[in-house]
Design a protein that fits this description.
The complex is a heterodimer.
Chain A: E1 4-7, E2 10-14, E3 19-25, E4 32-37, E5 43-49, E6 55-58, E7 61-65, E8 71-76, E9 85-92, E10 99-101, E11 105-110
Parallel strand pairs in A: 2-11
Antiparallel strand pairs in A: 1-3, 3-8, 4-5, 4-9, 6-7, 7-8, 9-10, 9-11
Chain B: E1 3-7, E2 10-13, E3 19-26, E4 32-38, E5 45-52, E6 55-58, E7 64-70, E8 73-78, E9 87-94, E10 101-102, E11 106-110
Parallel strand pairs in B: 2-11
Antiparallel strand pairs in B: 1-3, 3-8, 4-5, 4-9, 5-6, 7-8, 9-10, 9-11
Classes of the chains: A mainly beta, B mainly beta.
Chain lengths: 111, 111
């Protein structure tokens, strides 16, 4: 069945260090989305990538969609304590009206 | 603008008791609606989704059920709660199988 895996599962970084999470799908995706969930909060939509090889930036966050549209990455430059949370990728489930969420990467930033 | 409401925010229920969680969306019509469950420190498990009034798709067989009596109302129910039903229940809406917008969630503890 369709699977979306993320690595690493957990990441601890010193404030100011960079962080990257990787998302890999077992199937080709029409688009990939990224969400952030702060501790105790709900997931919040960050961005959607649609084109093969697409790169988008939001301030210190850089999102990439792989050429084969089966993988994606989120890179944060110079992490801050406000970046703490769990980052999920998600892609449309084949033939259905719902998303398949990745397993998530929990980021801890040490001040 | 669109707003999604969930209540209650927290709930403590004994094993064997019934459950009813409500989700309503404002500011949009005919949204796709979703119920997710998230165990502590874990990912998002899709429970049900609906593309219209009275149309419910179940993703995981269990002792929960969902109903959509009105266009912007989605209800999650159980006749008898189990300990394993504890978790963070999230409702979400979308206009397409693309970005989803989550409600604040209900933290359910079954004792």
């Amino acid at each position: 069945g369709q699977q979306v895996m993320q690595i690493p599962q957990y990441q601890h970084v010193q404030e100011g260090e960079d962080f990257t999470t990787y998302c890999n799908s077992s199937t080709t995706l029409s688009n990939i989305q990224w969400y952030k969930q702060r501790p105790g909060g709900h997931p919040v939509f960050l961005i959607q990538l649609v084109k093969s090889g697409e790169v988008k930036k939001q301030k210190r966050l850089t999102f990439q969609f792989g050429e084969a549209k089966k993988n994606s990455s989120l890179h944060i430059t110079a992490t801050q304590t406000t970046d703490v949370g769990t980052y999920f990728c998600a892609g449309p489930q084949t033939g259905a009206n719902n998303l398949f969420f990745g397993t998530g990467t929990r980021l801890t930033v040490i001040p | 603008s669109q707003t999604i409401h969930q209540w209650p925010a927290t709930l403590v229920q004994p094993v064997g008791s019934p459950l009813s969680l409500e989700c309503t969306v404002e500011g949009t019509s005919n949204p796709n609606l979703y119920w997710y469950r998230q165990a502590a420190g874990r990912g998002l498990q899709l429970l049900f989704y609906s593309v219209g009034i009275g149309q419910i798709s179940s993703e995981v067989p269990q002792n929960l059920s969902a109903s959509r009596p009105q266009d912007r109302q989605f209800i999650l129910s159980s006749k008898k709660l189990l300990l394993s039903d504890s978790g963070f229940y999230l409702c979400a809406w979308s206009r397409t199988p693309n970005e989803q917008y989550f409600g604040p969630g209900t933290r359910l503890t079954v004792t």
